[in-house]
Design brief:
This protein is an alpha/beta fold. It has a single domain (about 5, about 15-210), classed as Alpha/Beta hydrolase fold, catalytic domain (Rossmann fold). The protein contains four helices and nine strands, in the order βββββαβαββαβα. The strands form two sheets. The protein has a seven-stranded mixed sheet, with helices on both faces. A two-stranded antiparallel ribbon has the order 4-5.
């Protein structure tokens, strides 16, 4: 799996606190990389894997879909397994800290962040789901015994034309019903990361990765 990475303090001793950021449909590995200097004062290693299937120049998607556009549970599991293998190998190889790691996803990447993070909540310092929703067919993969321990940030725009805010609200309610404690935030924005949502994301990453304790 190809990926892009950025570390803004390469001289720091020891493994770096890490953000694994999963891009959305139609984007690429560089799409979220620009967040690196804006999160935690640039004190994080950011790894951005790239989806497998090209759909246009510089445009990729995570799932192999049949002509009718459906997405099977089996395909989600295949991609999730590939991402787990990527994280296991790439984080320590790039100098990241597997013990201090956030998983973040935007849009389609957010469903994968949900899939990976909620199944192994003790593996991650936090899970950030941006402009996305939790599909019902992924609920069976959740570790309900540990889900309440995972810091979970959910951000969504009230004017999102791609994923209606009602789907995010329904996901919030579903998460709460299965034992999660999401920090749910809405913003007057579309399908994007806006100025205020970025400020809140920065504060959350700083907190869950304990960057101010260093």
């Amino acid at each position: 799996m190809t990926f892009a990475s950025a570390s803004w303090h390469p001289g720091t001793e020891g493994p770096a606190p890490t953000v694994v950021a999963i891009h959305g449909h139609g984007a690429h590995a560089q799409d979220l990389l620009g967040l690196a200097p804006l999160l935690g004062g640039g004190r994080v290693l950011m790894l951005c894997p790239q989806a497998e299937f090209p759909i246009g120049p510089g445009s990729f998607t995570w799932f192999d879909r049949p002509p009718d556009g459906s997405r099977s549970v089996e395909e989600v599991e295949r991609v999730a397994a590939a991402l787990r293998a990527f994280i296991k190998e790439a984080v320590p190889r790039a100098g990241g800290d597997p013990e201090r790691m956030v998983i973040l996803g935007f849009s389609q990447g957010g469903t994968l962040a949900y899939r990976l993070g909620l199944a192994e909540p003790r593996r991650f310092a936090g899970i950030a789901a941006l402009s996305t929703y939790l599909p019902d067919d992924l609920v069976g993969t959740v570790d309900r015994d540990a889900i309440g321990e995972a810091p979970l940030l959910v951000q969504h725009g009230t004017s999102d034309a791609m994923i209606d805010v009602q789907r995010a609200r329904a996901s919030r309610d579903l998460l709460t019903s299965i034992g999660a404690q999401p920090e749910y935030l809405e913003y007057p924005m579309g399908h994007e990361i806006g100025r205020q949502s970025l400020t809140d994301l920065d504060g959350w990453v700083t907190r869950v990765l304990r960057l101010d304790e260093a």
